[in-house]
Amino acid sequence: MTTDTTRSRGLGRLLPALVAGLLAALVVGGFLLSRPGTYTSTMDVVVVPQKVASANDSAALFDSLSRGQVIATAAEVYSQKRWLPEGSKVEVTAGNVAPSAVVTVRAAGSDPGQVTSALERVVASATPEIGKVLAPYTVTTLSTEPSIPESGGLSTPLKLMVALLAGLLTAILAAGAGSTLSRRRAG
Q1: Dihedrals φ, ψ of 43, to 5°?
Q2: Could you list the residue ranges that cross the membrane (predicted)?
Q3: Rounded to a whole number, what is the largest CA-CA distance in the chain?
Q4: Is 163 exposed, middle or buried (0-12, 13-18, 19+ CB in 10 A)?
């Protein structure tokens, strides 16, 4: 009889811990799975002096280009939201690939199709404007199409693994807390 009583007390302490662990796994899993994935795509452009510049002018223009303000200006213009359609959920950033005259324009969002179309629109719309602003420099795209959107963040199997680990940790902590409480009550 003592074995049955001990067993039922142990099960009585373990059951709430298992329920707490299951609830934690469901909450964490639901949260992680409800978050959309993020996709990023890039396009590179290069800023160089116009070909019609003389040798002396080209040297001065390359010297000015090497100081970074021209590239920073181009990156800032590419990053402006005015190139995106109204209500777009895609974020576009740009930065230089140091120490070069290359600007990488990057788009990120939850839909890979929207990411590539927004990136193409930004580069197509902003490049002529940047060419005017940065004259006597020209802006040329190095690739005709954006890179294939890459998924960022946690993969679905990894999200499920994190949820299961959260549930297991919660169950272990709840079992330990239950055991400590029952000892204090008994002792």
Answers
A1: -140, 145
A2: 12-33, 160-181
A3: 102
A4: buried
Which phi and psi angles does 146 have, rounded to 5°?
Answer: -65, 160
Give mean pLDDT in consecutive 10-residue pieces for the chain, a chain of 187 residues. Answer: 54 77 85 80 88 74 79 90 86 83 89 90 92 88 84 77 87 83 75
Give CA–CA dist 102/158, Å, rounded.
Answer: 35
Q: How far apart are CA 98 and CA 132, in angstroms?
A: 23
User: CA 176 to CA 54: how far, in whole Å?
Assistant: 79
- Nearest CA to 137 out of 145, 129, 147 is that of 129
Burial (0-12, 13-18, 19+ Cβ within 10 Å), 142? exposed
Report the C-alpha gap between 25 and 36 in whole angstroms. 19
Q: Would you state the structure tokens that stand for residue 39, as one six-digit string?
A: 């996709």
